[in-house]
Write a structure and sequence with these properties.
Elongation Factor Tu (Ef-tu), domain 3; two-stranded antiparallel sheet; 1 helix
Length: 134
């Protein structure tokens, strides 16, 4: 049965991280090694490296000055924090990882369409992502 995407929660150090309006989870990519040789029969051959690269996670959230300034400070210090993503329903168990901020941007200020201030940030997982409860 399909699950709704409404209700995802991002936590930092066990505490909910602001009012999330959009969250793009990280991608997973497997490495490969070219093992083509003279007996490959005109085809390239590859083997998996068994190393998984985890991509950045993108978040858009409503801004408050304390959260924004905290993010600026953490980026400058190179802080690695404990993060978790909790999904609605039970289709996907919570994901836990250590990560650091790689990008932080305030949303545009547009006079013709005033909006609540938001900011966008990117988090790079520092290593593995663990599905808790599995």
């Amino acid at each position: 049965m399909a699950e709704t995407t409404f209700g995802v929660i991002l936590k930092k150090g066990g505490t909910s991280f602001g009012s999330i309006t959009k969250l793009t989870p990280p991608s997973f990519e497997s490495g490969k090694v070219d093992v083509t040789n003279h007996s490959s029969g005109n085809f390239s051959e590859f083997m998996p490296t068994k190393l998984i690269s985890v991509g950045e996670m993108e978040i858009e959230c409503f801004s408050n000055s304390a959260t924004y300034l905290s993010c600026v400070s953490e980026m400058g210090a190179g802080t690695v924090s404990a993060w978790s993503i909790e999904f609605p329903g039970n289709a996907i168990p919570p994901l836990q990882f250590n990560g650091f901020l790689t990008s932080l941007k305030l949303s545009d200020y547009v006079a013709e369409s005033p909006d609540v201030q938001k900011f966008m940030l990117k988090i790079q997982p520092a290593g593995s992502i663990v599905a808790s409860g599995v």
